[in-house]
Structure formats: C-alpha cells, structure tokens
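Task: complex structure prediction.
Instruction: return structure tokens for all chains below.
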Amino acid sequence: MAEKRIPWVERFRDWLETSIANRLTFAAVALTMSVVGVVGLVAFIISYLQIERSVRDELASEVSIFEKRLDISLDTLQKDLASLSANTLVATGLMDSQGRETYLIPFLRDYRSSLGGPVTLSLHDFQGGAIAGNNPGGLPSFQKSPWLEGVIAQARPHAEIIPRSDGNYLLLAYPVFYPSTGQAEGMLVAELNLTRMFREASQQGNARFTKHLLDGQGRHVGELHGDDHAARAFVVRRPLKLEPPLAAFGLQVEVSAAQGEMLAPLYWMIAIYLAVGGLTLFFVLWVTRQGVRRLTQSLVELSEVTEGMAASNLSVIRVPVVGRDETAKLAQNFNIMIDGLNDSYQTLERRIAERTRELKELNDTLEKRVRDEAAKNRQKDLLLIQQSRLAAMGEMIGNIAHQWRQPLNTIGLLFANIKDAYDFNEMSEESLEEATQNGMRLTQQMSTTIDDFRNFFRPRRDSAPFSLVKSVQSTLELVEASFKNNEIAIAFKASGDAQVRGFANEYSQVLLNILGNARNAIVEHHVKPGRVRIEVGHDQVNGYVVVSDNGGGIPEAVLDKIFDPYFTTREKGTGIGLYMSKMIVENNMHGRIEARNSENGAEFTVITPLVPDQSC
Amino acid sequence: MKSWLSRLLLLCCALYPLLILAEEKLPVLVGLDAEFGHPTSTSDDAIKRGILIAIDEINRAGGVLGGRPLKLVERDNRSVPARAIVNVRELAAMPDLVAVFCGKFSPVVIELLPTLHEQKMILLDPWAAADGIVDNGYRPNYVFRLSLRDSWAVAVMMKHARDKGARQVGLLLPNTSWGRSTLKAVENHLLTHPETKLVGIHWYNWGDKTLVEKYSALANAGAQAIILAANEGEGSVLVKEAAALPKHERVPIISHWGVSGGDMAKMAGAALRDVDFSVVQTYSFIGAKREKASQLVDAVNRQFGIPDARHIPSPVGMAHAYDLTRILAKAIDKAGTTERAAVRNALEEVKNYNGLIKDYKQPFTAERHEALGPEEVFMARYDEDGAIVRIEQAPRK
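Output:
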C-alpha cells in the first residue's frame, strides 16, 4: 500500500532537508518553543495549584463557618424540641385546652430559634390533630400521616424534608410524653423553612461563593446563597454533625466557587505569558536566522561550488577562501581536494580508456573462444561417451566370455568325443549326426549371444516407448552368466510392467552399470552368498526399477559423490559409469536416479516418467 | 295464593311476641370512660366497682325497662382528653348505650363537654370536681354529677385551715383547668372570708418532679397552710419533699381530693406520718351507719375480694358511682326507653332514692345537676394503714 503523502509535510521536509540554515532555524525555534512551553506549563501548573489551594482554603474556612452555624442551629432546634416536648407545660397542653391561650400558646410564640427565622411550633394529639401552635396563619394537621405511628406508638422522633412552593421545609416531630402514664400521647412539631433560613444566614458569608445544603444523596435541600452549581466549580463539602433524627438525612454543607471567576488571574497570566512568549519566539527566530546565515554562508558557497563541480570541469573550480577560521580552512582543504580529485579524475579517465579498449578487444575474440571451449567440451563429452562405451564394451566382452565359456567347453568336449569315437572306431553316422547337431546348436547359441550384444551396442535410434520389465529381462540375460559364475543369486520381482519413453539400450546400459557395480562389490567384499534383488514397479506418474545388493554398501562419506564424473572407489574403475547413467536418466529420459544404503548393501532406484497414456 | 298469605300472616302473629321478648332482653349499656391506663390511679377501678355492684343489684332485681339487664362498657382514656373524645364518639355510636361515666380528671371532662353535647350523650360524673363541668353553659345540660365541687371543697379546706389557726394560706395549684377552677373557688371564698389572707399562688406543671421550692416559697411568704390541688403523683412528691424539710419549715398541707384518687398512701409512704396532710372527702365507709354501706362492703368483699371498709381504695369514687348508677336505672325506667334525651330528662325527675350516701329527695332537677351538697364534704386524713379517715371537725361557723 502506497504511503500517503501530505503536501505541506512534504514541502516542510524539503525545506528542512535542503538547507542547514533551515534546520538550524527550525531547531532554534523548536527549542525556544519547548522552553517557553515547558516554563509556561510549569508556571501554569504551579499557579493553578496555588490558586486552587487558596480557593479551597477559603472554601474550607467558609464551609467550617456554615457547618458550625448549621450544626449549632439545627442541633439547637433538635435539643430545643426534645426539651420542649419533655416540658410538663407542653404535656399539660395535651390535657388542658382552656388555659392554652394563657400559657402554652404565648410560650410557643415566644420561642424563637437562633436559626435566623421563626420556627413554627405546634402541639398535636395522638391522632395528629392540632391542639395549639405559634403560627397565627393556622395550624397544620398531621392526621393519618404515615410517620405518626412511629412518633406516638414507638415514641420515635421523626424528621422529614418537605418541598413546598416557597422552599424546602424541615419538619421535626418529637413525642410528648404524658406525665401520668409515661406514654407518648401527643407530639410537638417544628417546621422550618430551610431555604429561607439558609438564604438569610448565608448573606453573612463570602458573596463570591455558592452555598448549598445537601442531603445524603447529594440533593439540594436548601440553597444558602448564589447561583446554581457552576460548571467545573471548586467544591468543598462537609457533613453536619447532628444527632438523630436529623442525622438520618446525612445533611452536608457544600460551598462552591465558579472556576472561571476563581481562575481569572490565572487566565490573565496565561494571556500575558503567551504575548511575551510570542515576542520572544519572534526575536529568537530573527536572531537565529541572522546568525545561521553568517555561519552557513561558507557552506552555501561550498555547496554552490560542488554544484559547479557536478556540472563543469574540476580544473576551473575554486572555493573562495575568506578569513582564517574553520570554514576558510575547509575551503582551502576543499580546493586541495578538488586538485587531488582532478588528478584522480584524469588518471581514471585514462585507465577507463585503456580498459575500454582492452574490453573491446576481448569482446572481439570472445565469440571465437566460446566456440573453441564449446568444441572442447563437446570433444570431452564425446570422449567420455566413447570411454563409457568402451568401458561398457569391455564389460560386454567379459560377459560374452562368460557366456561363451560353457558352450566352448561343450564344443571342445564334443570335438574330443568325435576324435575318441573316430580313434576307437566307434564313430557312426548317427553319432556324427548327433555331434554335428549339438555343435550347430552350440554355435547357434553363441551366435545369439553375439546378436544380443550387438543389439546392445547398436547405435541409438529415435526415442521410443519400451517395457521396463523386458528391458530388465534382456539386461539380465547379458549378465546372467557373469553373476552365476560369481555365485550371485538374482531375484527379480515385477509388481507390474511399465512403459517408459527413451532409448532402451541406454536404459540397459544404466542397468548394466548398476548391476556391474553390485557384482563387483559382492565379489570384492567376498560376500557369500551374494544376492541381488531387482524390483520393477510403477506409481501413477513414474515407473521405477530398484536394484539392491548385499555387497556392503557405499561409504556414507562418498555417497553424494558417486555420480560425479571420474569418481571411483575401485582401483581399476573409470568413474564414468554412474555419471553416464545419471546423464542418460536425467537428460535423455527426464527421470532421476537415487542411491542409498540399505541394510547390507547399496540400493539404486531408477525413476522414469511413464508414457502419457499409462499415467493417470 | 290466599292460603299462602294467610299462613304467613299466622306465622308473623305467632312470632311477634317472641321478637318483642327478645328485644326486651337486649342489655341496656352504660359506658365508663376512665383512666384505666393510668398506672397510679385507683379512682377508675373504684368507680367501676361502684357501677358493677349497682348493676348487679339492679339486674338481680329484674333490670331496667321491665327486664333488660344493664351492662357496663369500658373504655380507657389514659387521662388523655383526645382519647376520651375518641372513646365517647365510639360509645355514642352504640344505640343502646344511655350514658357515660367519667373518671376523676376534670380537664379531661372539660375537654369532653363539646363532644358530649354534640353527641347528646349523658355524662354521669362520679368524681371530677371542677365547677365548670356542671356549670358548662350548655342547654340542655347533659352532665349530671354526684360528687364534689371545687367551690365546696375550697370552703371546707379553708375552714379546715382556719380551724388549724392558719390565717394566711398559700395556694399550690396545677396549671390546668382544675387548678384555675380551684383558684376561682378560693378567690370567691375569700370574698366572703376576708379574715383569711392569701399570701401567694404557685403554679406547677403537671408531671413536675419537684414542688418543694414552691412549697417553701409559700411558707416563706407567710403561709401557715398550703392549699393544694394535686393528684397522687404530685401530692406524694410534695409530701416526701416536705417531710424531708426541717420540722420548723413544714406547714400543713390541706389537699384537694385528687390524691385520694390514687394510691397516695403507698406512694408517699412513711412521709405521710411526718407531714400534717389532710384531704377533702365526701364519703367514708369507715363508720358509716347506713345499711346500704354494710351491704356494699359485703358486696365489694364478695365480688372483688376487698376485706373491709378500711381497704376500699378511693372510696368516694365507688360510693358516688354506686348511687349514680342506681339513679340512672331509675331514670331509664322512668323514661321507659333508652333514648338519651328522654333519659336525660328523666334524670331531672327521679325522686326519693334512698342511696348509699344519703336519701335523695330529688337528686337532680332541671336547674341543679349536682346530686350532693356542701354538707357532705369533710376533711380526712390518711391513717397509718393507708385508710382515709374522717377528721373530727369543729362545729361549722
């Protein structure tokens, strides 16, 4: 997948790569920006942390004030109610209606909480019905309130936060115990507008902060002051330390500050810093550009000279030498290098011309040399083939000698019998006829042997299909006498005939080589009894002949060299047989020949492709 | 068809007398709404005993309305007015319930008054003594009392103070309607008895755990006797605290009878012997000469296992309830119905009842719903065995 190239990146890369001045400028700018950025970031973080800590300290202080104030106020309310509900005057109010106006109601009306607003107090009977209260606007009724039973039957104080149109009200109900029975027979209920109370109370605090009263689930139950939660606000919460039943609400005071307002100085600082940083960057850019130009002027000139070098004659190029600094030395050295380079160039030119001429001459004679070498190789091949054929012929002659030895002996005996018969006057026409017939048969047999060998050495004709089994059988006939003479048993097994294409006599030559090697190995190693096993078969593609012997095998060290030309392990070996066999099988029949050691000897496999109509 | 109708008519005629008989046998109910849940009160049980003994006698004699038995239905108000109101509304919903007895707490009864008259329910008061209970302004008045009135009690208590040589008295009163009723009675009494000087009034709240500061303050103000309106709780607290004072700092305590509605003797204990403590009463079984008294002592012994007259708790409650129940039975018979308005009217017309406390020529009239009179009121004291015994008094002036 091709790499996606972004034009401006490419341009920037070009800009960087084509000029040291550009790279230095860029490095200076990047370094300056990094320093400015890191310093700015560190300064920002430190400033932010300091501001945050300062704001949080302020918030903590504020929240402490409100926490204590609310703790005291709400705790006071609870304690007051607990005290009032245990007051016998209040208990008397459950019994005595006539005197309530004179003692109970004024008493309740006089009650003012320290919470910053009046608390509505009311006395109720055991059914929640109102008895008396300090609210001139009317008395609440709590008949059938679900929590009534808890307050009366279980004498358990109850607290509840009730949302109303004018704010969240805190309702506290304490059981009033009847002095004579000790049982809760009524309740004293206090109602307090939390929203209003906290709003009034919060006006004394820091006006920049928003204050809320939250319940245990974080819901607002009373807003002290300010807007709703600002986004990303600094927030400090603290739970109120209240006794039950108010403790059940998990009330907590939250004081928050809008982040934007608190961080305004930091934002100003960032703006100023960015402006100063920008100017610094611009200054650094200008200074760097000027300095780099001076520094790289010599390099630029050097570069221009090198460009000239690439385009023109070195002998006319010189770098101007200005001053005595490193760049002047560089220019001087460069000029010396140019001179040296010019000399080298001239020398190289001359040598190239010489070599070119030599190459041209070489090129002119190359074709002739190749032809000569090819002819030599062909000659070598022919010689090799000839040697091979001679070796084979020698082998064949040996075989013929073996083949003929028996009939020659028989003919000799036949002649001796004829002479004896004649000497002892036992010759008859019948015996002479018989001896003649026997001699004719023997000579015919020897003639057949000669035909067989002649066929073997008949010049090859065109490639043609032939049977592997027949090829093996005809080859075995050639060597049969030789093997028998050396007491070597031949086991031939054909699991199926196979037609392969090639030169049958060359294939026989291959087999003769392999069989001859087997026989020689058995004889040399004095293996008794010698055994050679020949197996013919085929698969769906190839036909094969496997020849294995018990002649001791081939040393592992030379196993991969046996097909090399002129490689032999025998004193009188030529080293040509297996090489030629390999040439015949691979080049002429497009097969392959493999050798390996079996259990007691060597095993050669000749694999050749089947004739197409035999393959699957 | 005609035959079927005639058979049905015959069956109805046969069953009608049986239905009438069954209806007549239904009990006539009498309610009692008292402070049964009050742990130290004994007046509630005393009232109940008086009613039950009377009902037993009435039912043995054939009941009311020609054979219907009287039956008591109880409700516990724990001395809480709100509960009493609920109870009375519930009792008023019972069709054959003719009247309700109340307990000893005047404030409870006072709170009940609007409900009683709204429900047209007869209230029979055998104890609560606030004058305003009967003088309630309702017409017709459904409240009938056979008990003490604060004004009568104050008169006797003040006289007792004078008899003890106390010309300066102090008042120690509960901050309730009962206390205010007592104060009003004292103020009225002082109008006619200027020789007695009121040196101070101290109010206590119901359930206060100490009263000795107020007691001592009155004593220090010159009070030679303390007129006390209290129940057994505050009364026993004061007696114990006064007994703990040096003897020269103690002044006699002349008490309204609320204390006798509870187990004062047991609660105050031995302190009662160290303090000059007297209490108003209207009746005592101890030494009673009337035959009815011995019959009741026998009955209370038989039915409730109380051995003798000295051990009858809150005796006035039992005596008042007994006579009041007998008067109610007569009124029911006189009215001939259980309809409350008729019975209320009949109560004002019952005459010549020879009761336990006295022979009533006419217990109630249309203008007078007090069955007793100041002549029944006397001062008593707690004997060592806790029995309330009459104090022999000087002749009335």
